[in-house]
Amino acid sequence: MFGVQRLRALPVCRVSKRLLSNEIKEVLSTRLPPPAGINGNQLQLAVISKNLNALNLDLFVNNLNPNEDRSSNILDLLTHIRSSRLANTCLESTNFGVVSHLLDNLSLQELVPILVDRPKYGIFLDNFTGFAVTESLHNEKEYELALPLVLKLVSLDELDSAFIQGFCVKSSIVALKKMLTKEAEPAEEVKAPAGKKQEQKIRVHFIRNHLEHDIKMDIGKSLLKISTIAGEMKDNTQLLAHVLTKRYENMDKLLSSFPSSITSDVLEICKELLTRANQTEICNKLEAIAAEKKSSKSLEELLDVFLSEKIAIEAKQLAEKQKQLFPTWQKLREEKKEMIEKEISVMERKETVEKIKNEIENKKQLLWFFEEEDKLDLEIYKKRVFYPKRWFGKKKKPRVLDEHYVPPQIRKIN
């Protein structure tokens, strides 16, 4: 068991910390110039923090010095804008700049949880940025670490990159093998401490409903959406997906006309899961077909060859497509700048009108004071407060004189 302003690129001296393709490195090092009328002072962190909006955030992340680590500042700004009403106004170029900077300045163990936590940071990957991150994970063989991220990319974002989908299958196989091996090991009994343990109660504001998270079901749903791989890899992936999602009728139909050979690792995983689910008939049918159609290679080995081929092909294709997007992003930034300027001008006009109204009201009161003297006297009279003649508060005790008290004698001194 197991038309726009010309793009400028940074100097070639910048070397990415990740083992990425040269085409991907070149595109990641490209920076969009700020729109016309934006000076350097407006790109400073202190200015942007006071007036944070989608355009300012985009200008900040896309004009950072690659040799300076500003990842903590970026994450603070993302958290702030994500918790505001401007959360849905961020530009696509913002995610590109954020991923490019974080790839260079964070470890994969730090980067992946940030990309997975979308409610907090709101970083969404497309085919290009997703390829850059997954290629880094693949080169460093961090398959188990990458699993939560690639499941989101395939099941939620439905990215159609063949490399990302193949990497999702590879991560799933590696994670399933480790999971099943760990579950097969005997659990260590935890010894109860001697004596009674004092119960400690903590007051909380609320308790969330406990949601049971089945990682195997999530893997199965994601594998069902794999569409870019074909042949023996696709058939084995579909077979494994039906077992994980407990779609045994569909699995039975697939086995009845299974066109390819069954790989050894998929066979072992499916047998283990079917045995645990008490699906003896389907398990026997699977073993019978595997005896006739057993592959000489495992699915992992097939995927390694597939991923190696797709890295070189997709790196060039995605780099070219990304370069074509830069002019479009620049136009969107110009439009966002004009829209924000209009909103600011409307707000300034409203503030000016309110200021003029207040000034007119003050002048009106000064000019009409004597004409409305009777009215003002009446308002003052209405505001008068009348106190009761009899006081119902605490009574003071009368002072009692001493019977033997002798008053001092007052005499005139010559």
From TrEMBL:
Keywords for the protein's UniProt record, in alphabetical order: Coiled coil
Localization of this protein: Mitochondrion
InterPro entries per record: mS27/PTCD2, Ribosomal_mS27
UniProt feature coiled coil, ranges: 346-373
Protein name: Mitochondrial 28s ribosomal protein s27
Organism this protein belongs to: Stomoxys calcitrans (Stable fly)
Lineage: Eukaryota, Metazoa, Ecdysozoa, Arthropoda, Hexapoda
A cellular component term, taken from the record's GO annotations: mitochondrion
Gene name of the encoded protein: 106087306
Keyword Protein biosynthesis part of the UniProt annotation: no
Statement: the UniProt record of this protein carries the keyword Coiled coil: yes
